[in-house]
Amino acid sequence: MKPVRTLAEALREGPLVLDGGLSNQLEAQGCDLSDALWSARLLADAPEQIEAAHAAYVRAGARVVTTASYQATFEGFARRGVGRAETERLLARSVELARAAAEGVGEEVWVAASVGPYGAMLADGSEYRGRYGLSVRELERFHRPRIEALAAAGPDVLALETVPDVDEAEALLRAVEGCGVPAWLSYTVEGGRTRAGQELADAFAVAAGNDRVVAVGINCCDPAGTGAAVELAAAVTGRPAVVYPNSGERWDAGARGWRGAVAFDPSRAAAWAEGGARLIGGCCRVGPSAIAALAGALASGTPKPPS
Fold this sequence. Notes:
Helix content: 25-40%
Strand content: 15-25%
Oligomer: single chain
Number of helices: 13
Radius of gyration: 17 Å
Shape: globular
Distance between the termini: 34 Å
Order of helices and strands: HEHHHEHHEHHEHEEEHEHEEEHEH
Low-confidence stretches: 302-307
Strand order of the largest sheet: 1-12-9-8-5-4-3-2
Largest sheet: 8 strands, parallel
């Protein structure tokens, strides 16, 4: 059901379960995502599949669902001949589909409008590197129109996610000014640093004192070492932490496939909550069964495992 509390109010009462990877669930439903627009293409071609994927996570226990707008940009759709008005409609549809998936559920479900990094539009894996050669001002100009379109559709929060470096984080936080919707900021990290190599303490500090930000943390990264990042995010910002790592497999942009072993462990959820995380879920390759196990671990207060 539609929330009666703001997300910030809910987070003060305890952790909420995020959904998992949208693309892997869509693939499990038989969708072909071999396209530069990735799951965003289905906003136009098969919106019922997106709603079904959201619903699978809600049934698994997710109480925050993230829209299919990560790779949905004006520039990306323009390359397919889609005009600005139609792109705005598709961005709004992403919020509507997530909201519809929560109907009939007896608990509050919040909708997070996904705002992916500039690199997601390039569709070449550069969100895992950052450092695009653009200024903060140029990145702000890129992000603002999409943020404004998503905010107008009425999500509960904007998910500024998979951010690879501090410059883009600064641009995103500038772009959400005045939009009237709170946001969370989530970096993709490796080896205790942003993907661009910056210290995490400095990266998290960008959001400290920003009243628009309801949570700060990490996503789309190896599950190993996430506990330390969660604690650091909470300590630096004084905000709830958000954490949703991927399966542990690594994306090979050249081969457009995943490599390596699965390392996502739902039992880590209790440790993340103990470290200050209040938005807890999974990213790429983490499906409904893992989210259901994670929700169970949080509900049962599973003893803290090593992080």
